[in-house]
Amino acid sequence: MAALNIKKGSTSHSAYDLRDFHSDIERSHTLAVIVENEPGVLARVIGLFSGRGYNIDSLTVAEIDHKGHRSRITIVTRGTEAVIEQIRAQLGRIVPVHEVHDLTTEAKAVERELALFKVTATGEKRVESLRLADIFRASVVDSTLESFIFEITGTSEKIDAFAELMRPLGLVDVARTGVAALARGV
Amino acid sequence: MSRQMTGAEMVVQALKDQGVDTIFGYPGGAVLPIYDAIFQQNDIRHILVRHEQAAVHMAEGYARSTGKPGVVLVTSGPGATNAVTGLTDALMDSIPLVVFSGQVPTFMIGTDGFQEADTIGITRPCTKHNWLVKDPAKLSETIHQAFHVATSGRPGPVLIDLPKDVQFATGQYTGPKLARVDHYQPKVKGDIEAITKLVELIEKAERPIFYTGGGVINSGPGASQLLRELVDATGFPITSTLMGLGAYPASGKGWLGMLGMHGLYEANLAMHGCDLMINLGARFDDRITGRVADFSPHSTKAHVDIDASSINKIITVDLPIVGDIGHVLEDLLKVWKARGRKVNKEGLANWWGRIDEWKKVRCLAYTNSDAIIKPQYALERLDALTRGRNRYITTEVGQHQMWAAQYLGFEAPNRWMTSGGLGTMGYGFPASIGVQIAHPDALVINIAGEASWLMNMQEMGTATQFRTPVKQFILNNERLGMVRQWQDLLHGGRYSQSWSESLPDFVKLAESFGWKGIICRDPKELDDAIMEMIDYDGPVLFDCLVEKHENCFPMIPSGKPHNEMLLSADAAAFAGGAALV
Ligand SMILES: Cc1ncc(C[n+]2csc(CCOP(=O)(O)OP(=O)(O)O)c2C)c(N)n1
Ligand SMILES: [Mg+2]
C-alpha cells in the first residue's frame, strides 16, 4: 500500500497531485507469487490476467515445497505503478495465494532464464556458432554433423542477444523456460 | 466429531453444523444422492425453485436480509450453467453464498458425459473461490472451508462441485472446528496510524462528506450503528451508493440521499465540491464517479475497504485504510473522542449552508397528474403507506429501481435488496421470495418493471407452493423504460426494441397461480389498492399502470462529470441555470 503522504493543511489540490508515484510510465516488473499447490491455481492466476487485461511477458511455475504444498509462480508483467499495484492487490485476493512479492521494487532480484537453441549449419557457420556459444558460456547438449543444440542460462536480455547472433547462423528452433527470480540477500 | 457416512450425508450434516436452516435448489441426476439425504431428515428446509437462476437470487435475498450465507443446490450441466448469472450477481455485490453443484462421476470427467459441463472452469471467474471434491475424505473439511471463505473478508459466492461417485462413497466426517481455515484470514483491523491521520483530517475539514457503500452493510449491524454515531456526532453530511442504503437512516439529520448517476443533486454536488471525502466500503463504481478525471477535483480522499484491490483501482486516494468498516469505525471513534471530539464548526456551518441551497432545487420534484399515475407518485404513496411496518424491499432493474432508491426511505440496514453491480433484470422477484422465507411475518415488496419481472415469472409457482405472501408491485409502463430513456436522451428518440409488447393480463396470470391480482390505473384509487395489497394474506401481483414516457431524473449521462447533471423540467426551472458548483 502507498505511503501516507497527506499534505498537511492544504486540501485544495487534486488527489492526483498528491501521489508521488502517480506516473504514466510503463515498466517491466517481476512478481513472485507463492501459492497453495492445488488444482486450478494457475488457471486462477492466468484468468485474472486475461480477464482484467493485464500483460504477461513471461510466466514460470513449479512446486517449491512438496510437504508444504507450495508452488512459486514467477510472472514478468508490464504496467504503470498504479497498474502493478492493482495486479498485486488482485493477486492477493485469490484465496490460494499466500504471498505476492514485487521483486523489481522490493529488492534487487537475481533473474535467470534457461533456453535451448537448435542451430543447423555446416562449414564456417557451424564453427562460428560454436565460437559464439563459447563467448556466451552456452554448452552443447546435442550434436549431429549438421546441427547443435545449445543450452544457455542467463538474464532474458542475454538470451535475446544470443538468439539475435545465432539467427543468421541457422537458428531453427528455440525453447525458453521463462524467468525464475529470487530476491538477493537475506 | 468424526464418524463414517456417505458423501451425500456429509453435505447435509455439514450444513446442519454450519447452522443452515434453508436451502434453495432444483434436483437432477447428478445430485440425487444428496436429495435422498435431504428426504431423510427434517432440520433443513429445501425450497424447490422453478429455475436455478432464481434459486441463487433467492439465496441472495435470504443472505442480504439476514446477514447469513445463502445456500443453493443444483444439478450438473444445465443446472450449474443456469446458476451462473446468480453467481456473478452475488460476486459483484459481495453476497455470501455457498452453492453445491452435482458433477458426473470422477471417472467420467473429461469425456463429455451426459450433462457434463466444466463447472469449475465456467464458474472460476464468477465465484470468490470454487472446489472440485474428488476425495470423500476431504469433503466435510472443504464444505466448512467454503463457509469460511464465503463469509470472511469481502464476502462472496463460492461453489463446490460434487461428482456423483463422491456423493455415494463413504468416508470420515469431521465437524467445523477441525477444518483448517488459517490460510485465509483477511485483515480486519485498520492501521491505527492511518486512522489517526483520518481523525486529523476530520478535525480540520471545511467541507467534509461521508460516502458510504455496501461494505458498511456487509460489515454487520454494528457497523451501521457506529456509522450513525459518527455521522451524528461530527455533524457531517452523508451520502450513500445504491448498495449502502439503510446503513444511515433516511430520517437522520446528515442524510443527503443517494449519489451517482441517478443520485440526488445535493449529494452529487456535495461530492463534487467537498474538501474531504471519506469513503466507507464503497468502490468508486463508474455509476458513482461519472468522468473519472473530473471526479471531486478538490478533495482529499480517504478510503476504508476490506479489499485492498478496491483501493486506488479507479480513483487514486490520499489515505487508504484496509480493514473491516466496523473495526475501523470503532477505532476511529475512539481516537476522535480521545482527541476532544473536534470538528471545524465554522467551516461546517458554511458547508451546510451551501448544501441547503442545493436542496432547494428539490431535484426529485415532478409534475403530478390526477388522470394518470406517475411512477414517482406511486412510490411516494407506497412508502408512506408501508414505512412504519416491518418492511423489506427488493427491486428489479430499470427506472423503477432508481425511483425506488430515490423515493423510498430506508431506516435500517438489510432491508433493501437490489442488484447493484451486475444490474440483473429478474433479480427482484426471486430475491423477494428468499427474503420472505427468512422473514415469514414481514411485509416483503418487490418493486418491479413489467419487463424485468417477466424474466423470472416462473417463480410464481414457488411462491404459491411455499406460501410466501410476497407483494409484486409492478410499475407497468409497457416499456423497457430505462432503455427507452437512453434512446430518448442519447439516440435521437429512436425506440429500437424497447417496447414491452404482448404483455399478459397480470390479474388473470395471478389468479392462475392462486395469487391475488390487482390492477390500478387511477391515482385516486391508488391508496386503497395499495392497502388491499398489504392487507391480503398471500402473494399479490399488483399491476400499476403508470405514465409510459416518464424519464428518471436527476441523471448524469455516462462519462459526464457530476456538475453536468440533467434535471427534470420542474427542478431545472428552479435551478434556473444557476452556477452549479
Ligand atoms: C438481464 C438483463 N438484460 C438486459 C438489461 C438491460 N436493461 C436495463 S434496464 C432495462 C429495461 C427494464 O425494463 P423494466 O423492467 O420494464 O423497467 P423500467 O425501466 O421500465 O422501469 C433493460 C433491458 C439488464 N439490466 N439485465
Ligand atoms: Mg417497464
UniProtKB/TrEMBL annotation, chain A:
<dbReference type="InterPro" id="IPR019455">
    <property type="entry name" value="Acetolactate_synth_ssu_C"/>
</dbReference>
<dbReference type="InterPro" id="IPR045865">
    <property type="entry name" value="ACT-like_dom_sf"/>
</dbReference>
<comment type="function">
    <text>Catalyzes the conversion of 2 pyruvate molecules into acetolactate in the first common step of the biosynthetic pathway of the branched-amino acids such as leucine, isoleucine, and valine.</text>
</comment>
<comment type="pathway">
    <text>Amino-acid biosynthesis; L-valine biosynthesis; L-valine from pyruvate: step 1/4.</text>
</comment>
<keyword id="KW-0028">Amino-acid biosynthesis</keyword>
<dbReference type="GO" id="GO:0005829">
    <property type="term" value="C:cytosol"/>
</dbReference>
<dbReference type="Pfam" id="PF10369">
    <property type="entry name" value="ALS_ss_C"/>
</dbReference>
<dbReference type="InterPro" id="IPR039557">
    <property type="entry name" value="AHAS_ACT"/>
</dbReference>
<comment type="subunit">
    <text>Dimer of large and small chains.</text>
</comment>
<dbReference type="GO" id="GO:0003984">
    <property type="term" value="F:acetolactate synthase activity"/>
</dbReference>
<comment type="similarity">
    <text>Belongs to the acetolactate synthase small subunit family.</text>
</comment>
<comment type="pathway">
    <text>Amino-acid biosynthesis; L-isoleucine biosynthesis; L-isoleucine from 2-oxobutanoate: step 1/4.</text>
</comment>
<dbReference type="InterPro" id="IPR002912">
    <property type="entry name" value="ACT_dom"/>
</dbReference>
<dbReference type="GO" id="GO:0009097">
    <property type="term" value="P:isoleucine biosynthetic process"/>
</dbReference>
<dbReference type="Pfam" id="PF22629">
    <property type="entry name" value="ACT_AHAS_ss"/>
</dbReference>
<dbReference type="GO" id="GO:1990610">
    <property type="term" value="F:acetolactate synthase regulator activity"/>
</dbReference>
<dbReference type="GO" id="GO:0009099">
    <property type="term" value="P:L-valine biosynthetic process"/>
</dbReference>
<dbReference type="InterPro" id="IPR027271">
    <property type="entry name" value="Acetolactate_synth/TF_NikR_C"/>
</dbReference>
<dbReference type="InterPro" id="IPR054480">
    <property type="entry name" value="AHAS_small-like_ACT"/>
</dbReference>
<dbReference type="InterPro" id="IPR004789">
    <property type="entry name" value="Acetalactate_synth_ssu"/>
</dbReference>
<keyword id="KW-0100">Branched-chain amino acid biosynthesis</keyword>
<keyword id="KW-0808">Transferase</keyword>
<protein>
    <recommendedName>
        <fullName>Acetolactate synthase small subunit</fullName>
        <ecNumber>2.2.1.6</ecNumber>
    </recommendedName>
</protein>
